[in-house]
Design brief:
The structure holds two protein chains of two kinds. Chain A has five helices and five strands. Chain A is of the alpha/beta class. Chain A is globular, with a radius of gyration of 14 Å. Chain B has five domains: about 140 residues, no CATH class; about 180 residues, Dna Ligase, domain 1; about 110 residues, 2-Layer Sandwich (D-amino Acid Aminotransferase, Chain A, domain 1); about 130 residues, Phosphohistidine domain (Glucose Oxidase, domain 1, 3-Layer(bba) Sandwich); about 220 residues, no CATH class. Chain B contains 25 helices and 28 strands. In chain B, the strands form four sheets. A nine-stranded mixed sheet of chain B has the order 22-20-21-23-24-25-26-28-27, with helices on one face. Chain B has an eight-stranded mixed sheet with strand order 12-19-18-14-15-16-17-13. In chain B, helix 2 runs antiparallel to helix 19 and helix 2 runs antiparallel to helix 20. Chain B is elongated and about 110 Å long.
């Protein structure tokens, strides 16, 4: 599959990625795939952990699940964008709805990805978000 | 601060009033805008792709779920939102009306797809003595009909109570289950049987583990105790489904939900939840999918009825399915009715006259039992009850009944049946019995002929591996095999009758079915190709084409036809796919006139190109200014570098550029196609042909090359390393080619648009037909509308897309003005041959 849709990661290799999701299995899959492709990746399992992580280790692109305990992904996205407006956020959701999709985009998401995740599709979105993040930073 | 008079005059005169920015600031501004432009194009592709998926689902007649509709519509709206935002960024905040148009359309789509679930108001538990048709919204069809039947003189129903839709809705809402279940379903591949079985298990578990509202629990125990006082201690209940939307003639949901028998007080809550959970049994899930029901719209109501100590039970069809007109069917067996409806019991059948005194037309099939089980008098009484129920409900009824040890008849259920489903399949002409006959006999569940390899299904494991288009052979026609009905070409069962649930479902799906065929599972060898002629009750060895042909053309409609999910998709698509903004030159081509999502993509795409095109001029950006391309063609080509389309060695202050200094790969491919063969000039035209063209020009000034417009004075390439946009007016013609080819597969595309041209309609359409044929031949997806054509290829290998750009380059040059000769059929053929031959030669091995 990777051969069929082979593409070059470029910007994604120059950035730092943060994955915020409370499903350990999903975290593991993404972590494995991303690191194998050479992407630098941190993990957080809730909004609080994500904000803490950003304080100590800034990220350029964030992948964030909408459904998380305590603070949901959209609320967390708003907090992140308020504090770090240049960060690009890709929202993941297992429960698609037109309304929630638009709400995510209006809250400043870069893109929206539906579960079950096609890892290559997610990688492509990460590459595009990384390109934008680098432009944001004038790089 | 208001703009100064000078700046307003400058604006009126079209002179840029943008602040002077440093070279670095301009460079950054350009990079940002170019980034927006590309994001817009990517979003455009994604939106169009999702739109195409939605349209295909509606028109291909395949099955699709609500999850599919929801996901794809979300992809469409999110991407179009991105387009709007990126266009507005490109235009420095302009097109504010577009936001309003988008929001208006998006909210309407949202209202269609995520219809709010309304909570029916009313009691949570209602005794059966108080239930009638007017309460169907609360008690479900089955209990509403039963309660109504019980109110008719001479008809007895078991004592009991109904647990209403209001109760189950509250249970779902309290536990936030709609959202959680939708989340699980979005991640279910309904075509993958194993995945569906697993997700079904997950959802049922979720329901079984959730708590009922405390008030409901108390109410259930209270009603049980009241019933025990009424009927006697030791009463046991049949707890059965009565879903809203169930028991419709063409969507029977027959036997798909759970019924729990002999339920004691201590097990009441679990039994209730088990029935609620059976809404998500694999058979119910696949049935809803095939029939196009949203799971949110099916609300489970439950009937709790005192068990009848039955000596005989059965089913009556108040109008016989297979017997002569004027007769009714009675299917019966000793004990409970369950074995009859799920096809596990040997069932007897009598045909009785519909008219009193309800004479016996044909005796029970099993001569040994004769009429000892069901007396003539009982049969007559059942017939009278059936006719009374048919009269009352106004259509033929399928009635389930039991007779207790005192001889009292109880009606357990009465629902409409659809006779035409049985007769619609028609009768194939019989094939004389010959050596190909393998098995004969049984009863017809649904007429028709199917042929394929035999697959015997005994376990859930067999079900997971059931090959599509094979003949399903089972011992008992249990409702749990229902998910296979859409995959099989015919069904054969050793037991059962046409009154069983699976037989009813086979009729709804138009699947030929043969029941009560002894030894079917042992006589039919796995993998052997057979032909099942269900109407004539014969199974043949091999594939009998003449039978298949004779029965073809009687295929039933798409089971989703007219279903709620199909209607939702149809309504949503009406706001998504129609294109009403077609002409960018029209005064109606405005943000406020966008009425569909497709209009918005069209508008954004058109305006974004213009915004990018204007960039160099607006900001007097030296690097972006147009360079005249040095070439020997009698045409003016200008190139604007969007970012990295020129070689680093090129002197940015130069006014001319050589093709060697261009590094935009799509432009180079296009250029290669343009120069592959020299253009031989316009074809010779008869005086009459030329006259028509001159006349057309006089009538339509837009076709006159002497009338200037923004894009027609020069031919512009806008380029970067991976991108090229060519706007070209060759003589009378207007064409636009656009390509983005990078290592990211989802972003790659090549599009071509061609419109206008002189000459009369016949000639123009002739040229479009020629282009259509050639582009289709070279794998473009072509759309035509009058004298306009759009062709696209995307997401293919880079090599392939470059070769298609060459094709477009070639056509741009060589189809110039050929419409002058398009009225001549021979000439058109000559050009067609020439073009195809030259393109094939040009592409060599890359065809």
């Amino acid at each position: 599959m990777i051969n069929k849709r082979n593409f070059r990661l470029d910007a994604a290799l120059k950035i730092h990625l943060l994955l915020v999701d409370d499903e350990p299995d999903f975290q593991e899959i993404i972590h494995k795939r991303m690191t194998r492709m050479g992407v630098r990746l941190s993990l957080a399992n809730c909004c609080r952990a994500a904000l803490q992580s950003l304080e100590t280790q800034p990220a350029d692109v964030i992948i964030m699940d909408v459904s998380m305990p305590e603070v949901d992904g959209i609320a967390c996205l708003k907090k992140v964008k308020q504090r770090w407006p240049m960060v690009e956020v890709i929202i993941l959701t297992g429960h698609a709805s037109v309304k929630s999709g638009i709400e995510g985009m209006q809250s400043g998401a870069f893109d929206y990805c539906l579960k079950p995740i096609d890892v290559l599709e997610l990688l492509e979105k990460v590459e595009l978000a990384a390109q934008k993040a680098l432009i944001n930073q004038g790089k | 601060m208001p703009p100064s008079l000078a700046s307003r005059i400058k604006t009126l005169l079209g002179i840029s009033t943008a602040p002077t920015l440093t070279a670095e600031e301009l460079q950054h501004l350009f990079t940002t805008k170019y980034r927006c432009f590309r994001e817009l194009l990517t979003a455009n592709n994604n939106a169009l792709e999702a739109m195409a998926d939605l349209e295909a689902a509606l028109h291909d007649g395949r099955t699709f779920s609500m999850g599919f509709v929801r996901s794809k519509s979300t992809v469409v709206t999110v991407n179009i939102y991105k387009m709007v935002q990126n266009l507005r960024r490109l235009a420095d905040g302009g097109y504010a009306n577009l936001d309003q148009s988008f929001t208006r359309i998006q909210q309407r789509i949202d209202a269609i797809i995520d219809k709010e679930i309304t909570l029916p108001e009313g009691e949570w538990i209602i005794p059966m003595t108080g239930v009638n048709r007017s309460l169907a919204e609360l008690t479900g069809e089955k209990m509403a009909n039963l309660g109504e039947a019980g109110s008719l003189p001479g008809i007895e129903i078991p004592a009991g109570f109904a647990i209403t839709s209001a109760a189950s809705r509250q249970f779902y809402l309290d536990n936030n289950m709609y959202r959680e279940i939708n989340r699980i379903f979005q991640q279910t591949d309904a075509r993958d049987m194993e995945d569906m079985l697993q997700k079904s298990q997950e959802v049922r578990q979720l329901i079984l583990e959730s708590s009922l509202p405390a008030e409901l629990e108390q109410g259930l125990y209270q009603h049980f105790d009241q019933l025990a006082e009424e009927v006697g201690p030791g009463v046991k209940l049949a707890v059965r489904s009565s879903a809203l939307g169930e028991d419709l003639a063409r969507a029977s949901f027959a036997g798909l939900y759970h019924t729990e028998l002999f339920v004691e007080r201590k097990d009441l809550l679990t039994a209730y939840k088990a029935v609620l959970a059976s809404k998500y049994s694999p058979q119910a899930m696949s049935y809803r999918l095939a029939k196009g029901f949203r799971h949110e719209d099916i609300v489970m109501c439950v009937g709790c009825l005192a068990m009848i100590p039955a000596t005989i039970s059965g089913i009556c069809y108040s109008q016989s399915l297979s017997g002569p007109p004027g007769t009714l069917d009675i299917f019966f067996a000793d004990g409970l009715a369950k074995g009859i409806v799920d096809g596990t019991r040997k069932t007897d059948h009598s045909l009785i006259a519909r008219q009193p005194p309800h004479a016996l037309v044909e005796a029970a099939s099993d001569k040994q039992r004769d009429t000892t089980i069901l007396s003539q008098q009982q049969a007559g009484a059942l017939a009278a009850i059936s006719m009374r129920l048919e009269d009352h409900f106004g259509s033929p009824q399928d009635i389930e009944w039991s007779i207790d040890e005192t001889g009292k008849i109880y009606v357990l259920q009465s629902r409409p049946i659809s006779i035409d489903l049985f007769t619609a399949a028609g009768e194939p002409s019989p094939v004389p019995p010959d050596e190909r006959v393998l098995l004969q006999g049984g009863v017809t569940g649904c007429r028709g002929v199917g042929s394929g390899p035999v697959t015997v299904v005994r376990t859930q494991e067999d079900m997971v591996h059931f090959p599509r288009k094979s003949v399903l052979v089972v011992e008992h026609p249990l409702p749990e095999w229902a998910p296979l009905l859409k995959r099989a070409v015919a069904m054969v069962a050793e037991t059962g009758s046409e009154a069983g649930h699976l037989a009813t479902l086979s009729r709804e799906f138009g699947l030929p079915s043969l029941l009560a065929l002894d030894q079917a599972t042992t006589s039919l060898a796995k993998g052997e190709i057979v032909t099942v002629d269900a109407g004539n009750r014969v199974i043949y060895r091999g594939c009998i084409d003449e039978l298949l042909e004779a029965s073809s053309g009687t295929k039933p409609d798409n089971p989703m036809q007219g279903s709620p999910v199909q209607q939702i998709l149809r309504d949503a698509l009406a706001l998504i796919t129609p294109l009403t903004l077609t002409d960018p030159d029209s005064v109606y081509f405005r943000a406020s006139h966008c009425t569909t999502m497709h209009d918005i993509t069209r508008f954004c795409h058109e305006k974004s190109v213009i915004e990018m095109f204007d960039f160099g001029r607006r900001y007097r950006f030296a690097k972006g200014a147009a360079k005249r391309l040095v070439d020997n063609m009698p045409l003016e080509w200008w190139v604007i570098n969007l970012s990295d389309g020129f070689s680093p060695a090129f002197d940015a202050s130069a006014q001319f550029i050589n093709i060697n200094d261009i590094v935009s790969s799509p432009m180079l491919a296009l250029w290669k196609g343009m120069h592959a063969f020299p253009w031989q000039g316009p074809p010779a035209v008869s005086m009459r042909g030329m006259g028509a063209i001159v006349f057309q020009s006089a009538m339509n000034p837009a076709l006159d090359p002497a009338v200037s417009s923004k894009l027609n004075q020069k031919n512009y390439f806008l380029v970067s390393r991976n991108y090229c946009n060519l706007s070209v007016r060759l003589g009378y013609h207007y064409a636009m080619i656009e390509a983005y080819i990078s290592s990211l597969r989802t972003e790659r595309y090549v599009t071509f648009r061609f419109k206008g041209g002189a000459a009369d309609e016949t000639r123009r359409v002739g040229r479009i037909a020629l282009l259509d044929e050639i582009l289709t031949r070279f794998n473009f997806r072509v759309e035509r509308s009058g004298d306009a054509i759009t062709a696209r290829v995307e997401k293919r290998t880079q090599k392939f897309l470059f070769s298609r750009l060459q094709v477009l380059g070639y056509l741009t040059i060589h189809t110039r003005q050929i419409d002058m000769v398009m009225a001549d059929d021979r000439e058109r053929q000559r050009y067609r041959h020439k073009f195809i031959a030259e393109i094939e030669e040009m592409l060599g091995d890359d065809k």
